[in-house]
Amino acid sequence: MEAWFDPNRYAWIPGTAFGCIAVALGALAAWLVPRGRAKKFIVRSWIALCLVALIFLVAGITAFGVRQPWGVWYGLLLPGIVGTAVMGGNLMVILRKYHEAEKRRTMNGSV
Predict the structure, then answer these.
(1) Max Cα separation, the chain?
(2) Of 70, 77, 88, 108, which residue is least crowded by CB atoms under 10 Å?
(3) Which of 16, 97, 80 is nearest to 105 (CA)?
(4) 109 SS3 class
(5) What does DSSP assign to residue 5?
(6) How far is 33 from 100, CA to CA, in rounded Å?
(7) CA angle at residue 28 from 24 to 32, to 5 degrees?
(8) Would you say residue 22 has pLDDT above 80?
(9) Tell me: the pLDDT tens digits for 72-108?
C-alpha cells in the first residue's frame, strides 16, 4: 500500500499545527475565562479543537490499521491522543470557571 503522504517530509505538520493553535487558544482561555469574557468564542473553539483531535485520533488508528508507514500513523495519532486528552479534559474546567465568573458577577451586583 502506498503511503498517504511522505512521512519524512510531512509527518510533523499535523502535531505542530494543532499544538500551535491549541497553545494560542489555551493562552486566550487563561486570560479571558477567569474574567467571564468571550464565552461563546472560547467554548466553541475549544469544542472544535476537541473534534479536530478526535479526527486525528480516528485517522491515526485507521492509518495504523491499514498498515501505513510509522511516520504516517504516528504523525496523526500523537496529536489525536494528546489533543483529545488535554482539550477534552480541560473543557469541564473551562465551563466551571465561566460558571464561577458568572456567579461572582451576580454576587457583586454588576449584571
Answers:
(1) 65
(2) 108
(3) 97
(4) coil
(5) S
(6) 10
(7) 175
(8) yes
(9) 999 999 999 999 999 999 999 999 999 999 999 888 8
- Using 50, 70 and 90 to split pLDDT, how confident is the model at 110? low
- Written as nine digits, the cell of 44 is 466553541
* Angstrom distance (rounded) from CA 70 to CA 60: 10
- Which residues make Cβ contacts (< 8 Å) with residue 7, sequence separation at least 6? 69, 70, 71, 72, 75
List the one residue out of 111, 53, 51 whose CA is nearest residue 83. Answer: 53
Contacts of 47 (CB under 8 A, 6+ apart): 91
Cell of 19: 499544538
Other CB atoms closer than 10 Å to residue 29's CB: what's the count?
21
Cell representation of residue 103: 456567579
What is the predicted pLDDT for the residue at 108? Answer: 84
